Amino acid sequence: MTSVLVAYDGSETARDALGYAARRVGPGGRLVVAHVVTTPTPYIDTPYYDQALRRARERGEEFMRDVTDLVGGVATELQVAEGPPARTLVQLARDTAAGEIVAGSRGHGAGAAALGSVSHALLHEADRPLVILTRKAGRRERRREETRAAAALPTEVVGYDGSAPARAALDYALDRPHGRITVVYAYDAPSSFLGAPYFGEALTDSQLRGRELLEQLQQDGLGADVELDLLEGPVVDALVRAAAARDADAIVVGSRGLGRFRGAFGSVSHALLHEADRPLVVVPGPAPE
Q1: CA-to-CA distance for 77 and 68, rounded, in angstroms?
Q2: What is the pLDDT of residue 216?
Q3: CA 183 – CA 225 distance, rounded (Å)
Q4: Alpha helices of 74-163 — where are they, by DSSP H?
């Protein structure tokens, strides 16, 4: 990864995201640190509009003053832009050829749009991998940074449901320098109201579907550093448990997957913003032909 765009509003989670992005891109890469000013409502009088916009830009520029102290010598470009935050960040990523967008979740900067709402909007707007750090993930990263080996390769848990976005997420994880990758297919137990023998049949069907998908991956020859795991339980819970059990550095999912439960991974990425205690990477699927 040679270039990463970081959304920044001066909040604690934004600082965590900035430090994480600097480690992620490495000393040979480049960071584009962007603060987006939400333009005031056009219905106020021109003098007040101009004054509000000027003050918002001044706050953004003030946030940028401590950026160089947080990036550890990584080459950095600073941007203060105006517009709808998520859409503007996506456009800046395109303009600067950034390979990823990194953002904190639930930021509380002085800007009108906190990073909490921006990170949710980016799940819908981003056209490239999106890395989000929640508060819990940021705290965990700070603790781990004290003991992390400089040359350690990241270990990751990848959610897989057989959809094109899920495959894109897996390919993304495999294409990056990595340590151990655990691919998780999670299936929910059917409702107990089904009763026997329908409950057992539905459970067996879910298990068989998962085994088939993981066997197909095994036949692809993904490598000795890839582990395949079939877990029972809600998808979000299974991914969080798998990541904790393996002390994974990140959880990787595709956006808007269309596995057995239609739309599963679209909602999973939103739910993981509330549950994950480590960085979440959301990878967009291939563009429709």
Answers
A1: 10
A2: 92
A3: 11
A4: 85-95, 115-125, 135-145
Rounded to whole angstroms, the Cα distance separating 102 from 281 reads 9
Q: Please state the pTM of the whole predicted model.
A: 0.84
Amino acid at 11: S
Task: Let me know: does 229 contact 184? Beta carbons within 8 Å.
Answer: yes
The answer to whether 205 touches 256, Cβ cutoff 8 Å, is: no
Rounded Cα gap, residues 57 and 52, in angstroms:
9
pLDDT band with cut points at 50, 70 and 90 for residue 201: low
Looking only at the bridges linking them, the beta strands covering 75-82 and 30-37 are parallel
- Specify the residue for token string 């395109």: 94
Walk across the sheet containing 226-232 and list its strands: 75-82, 30-37, 3-7, 100-104, 130-133, 280-283, 250-254, 156-159, 181-187, 226-232
Query: C-alpha distances in angstroms, 277 versus 74, 144, 233?
Result: 26, 12, 18
Reported as a pLDDT band with limits 50, 70 and 90, residue 189 is: low
Confidence class of residue 278 from pLDDT cuts 50, 70 and 90?
very high
Residue among 275, 31, 52, 14 nearest 159 (CA): 275
Any residues with CB less than 8 A from the CB of 130 and at least 6 apart, and which? 100, 101, 102, 103, 122, 123, 281, 282, 283, 284
Nearest to 164 by CA among 276, 285, 43: 285
**Cβ 38 vs Cβ 61: under 8 Å:** no
Percent helix, strand, coil in the chain, to 5, is 45, 20, 35
Residue 51, pLDDT score:
79
Name the phi and psi angles at 104, rounded to 5: -85, 160
Q: What is the DSSP letter of 148?
A: -
3-class DSSP assignment, residue 17: helix
d(CA 140, CA 142): 5
